[in-house]
Amino acid sequence: MFLQLPRQHDALPLGRIGAIVWVLLAVAAVGWGQNAAAAPVDPAGVVRRAVASRLAADAAHQPVRFVLHKQDERRNITQEIIETPQGDVALLVGVNGGPLSANGRAAERARLETLDAHPENQEHRHRREQEDSSRVTNLLGLLPDAFVYHYDSTVACNVTTQPVVPVPGVAAAPSSGVTPANAQCYHMTFMPKKDWDPPNLEAKIFKGMAGEIWIETANVRLCRLKGHLIDDVDFGWGIVGRLDKGGTVYLEQTRIGDTDWELTRMKLNFTGRALMVKELSYRINEEMGQYTPVPAGTDYHKAIKVLEAGQPGAP
After folding, report:
1. Total-model pTM
2. Rounded distance, CA 306 to CA 315, Å?
3. Selection from 87, 98, 117, 102 nearest residue 12 by Cα
């Protein structure tokens, strides 16, 4: 299908969300501009400026290290991940709630050694990450016209810390999320604009998505999003694929450090069909935590060495 959901990265899934989910984050991040009490005369213009601000923040993002727990219909895994300029590097550290076996640890070391010796493999993975980023950029430009946003009220955000994601066999570090406990959020709803015509297959999901968003008022950043498909979404007249009405997405984001905001929880529950015959099912539950900054100059080779050595915290 053309719909981009979380990608399985070769033998070891990195658990990073795909283009559509990132754009759903952006929907929440820019929706406030159309609906706050002092809404401007040209809300679409404000949304376009907010999109530009979002992209600027992404461009200024500094690499981080974090722990990911991912459970879907096929696996239950925990990974440590380090972002680098050459792309993410991941180490599998737990399966089904327990640590890896001796054979599992040996296989992970061998995989990282192979990756270290073959930069073309990391470059291939990095190119795919960049392709997803390009899709996000293109879809972001559609947001001012695709949705109608409605401001509901200002409420307590009720999301104050990033989760502590246990690493099997390692003592859990304290949570370091810094979203203020008394943070206030704009609560809003969004619906697809009826007369909007998607310019491509990927954008068609906007025609079927509605939901609620909570935007932290001081920084105007997403805290939570609940979305659901209010209609079946067909791609290529249903021949390429279809997502069924009723599918849901839930996202949480937390302020990490002084200015950075990171995704900390995600739940996806979608069903559908590909090529009219193959059943699709995306039931994914992820938590990301223990975010720490990565020192300047950490390339993917250094990240591999850090993960191989089992060094806790930032490299």
Report:
1. 0.80
2. 6
3. 87
Going from N- to C-terminal start, the domains of the chain cover 19-309
Residue 259's pLDDT band, with cuts at 50, 70 and 90, is: confident
Q: Residue 28 pLDDT > 60, yes or no?
A: no
The tokens of 173 are what?
A: 């570090």
Q: Can you read off the two tokens belonging to residue 107? A: 């296989």
The percentage of the chain sitting over the pLDDT mark of 90, rounded to a whole number, equals 30
Lowest mean pLDDT among 89-103, 112-126, 211-225: 211-225
- Mean pLDDT, residues 118-143 taken together: 84
**Quick one: pLDDT at residue 296?**
93
Query: 180: buried, middle or exposed (CB in 10 Å: 19+, 13-18, 0-12)?
Result: exposed
Angstrom distances, CA of residue 201 to CA of 119, 210, 213? 33, 18, 25
